[in-house]
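debug: dumping io for the single-chain case to check the tokenizer round-trip. Nothing else runs in this session.
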Amino acid sequence: MHLYNNMSKQHKGKGLRDLLWKAARATNDYMFDKHMLELKKLSKKCYDWLIEKPRSQWSRSGFRTTCQSDMFVNNHCEVFNNSIGEFRDLPIISLLQGIHKAVMRRIQSRRDKMIASYQLNPICPNAMRKVNNGGCIVQWSGNTKYLVTVCDGGHEIVVDLEAKTCACRKYDLNGLPCYHACACIRWKNLNMSAFIHKAYHKDMFLKTYEHTVEPINSEQYWEKTPFPPPLPPLLKVQPGRPKKKRNKRNDIPPDSTTDALKVRRVGGKLHCKYCKLEGHNARTCPAKFKENEAQTRVHEGQIAQTGAQAEKAQECTQGSTTDPIYAGPSPSQTSHAENPRMKIVKKGATHSATQGGIFQTFTQAPRVTNTPLGIQPQSQTKDGKYVTSMRNLENARNERKAALQKPGWKI
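debug: decoded output
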């Protein structure tokens, strides 16, 4: 597991990962060499990096047969660490007391569970679940050895029931009959428990848990000593949220059906939905930018053309009215719908504001002609209509009223 984490930093890929775990699970030299050659075809650098590591530390084909175990992960430690996880944040004395009670309950519960099932089968239940015969054809040689032909693949393997060995080395490693040995035992109608190593017998399990953890009194009943009690260490609060659990993301290899086939953004190719090309998305599409620029130039040309037409129309109608305040054609002569300047506002026009000591340069908005009372609009709505404020209307009304009250303006 840790070897895979180190290898994945330099050599990535689902094929390399699968072949690594196949080579790690191989129990004999033939299967190990087969998977390593396949890995070499995929990546020569990964093969050279992996072949330098001692095979006895990560592959079952290099394990010794004295321990009767083929485990190459630290699941036992992880189970114990998970059981004491609730006591990690406690002080040292409370931590030890919590672990003491947890271990005492664990030993007693396991021993009682095994005693209750002892009469059913002298072999541990987990060991019996691993025993199976598979699909094999058995030929007896006349003594303790058998020739087993595997239906899946057709290869032949020699099994010795008296020595409890098999050419695949699974029987030798963990002490449980492999499916080749199970086929021979079933073919001879022998008792399966007689060919299982004694480490998997319930008697050995009960012997392991025959000791007990003695209970102890609480600190109120401890023996008093003339020495001063020890003081707790100084507490220094670390920044951030306290970390309760360690990161287990790299402990277990990802599932081949979920994480390994998951499409990630890193290293992938972008596809544009606008131009249907690779290498960019719709937000950064150059073709889209070019089209937008072309539309902007066309729009600016239309604005310039309509502005020139409006100025020409204003020159033609200038001086045709006797009202000195309202210069231009009357509303009855030219409506808002006929005047194109009432529909278009120059792009980028803003209102000037210099409050707070901030001085900025603003573009003056174009003057709109043929407006009621000669009032310039303040803003434009989404529907294309021009609106103004009540204050502007009131000021314009007062100015027009004062102009009409002057003596020289009577008609």
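debug: round-trip ok. The beta strands are 136-140, 145-150, 156-160, 165-166, 379-380, 386-387.
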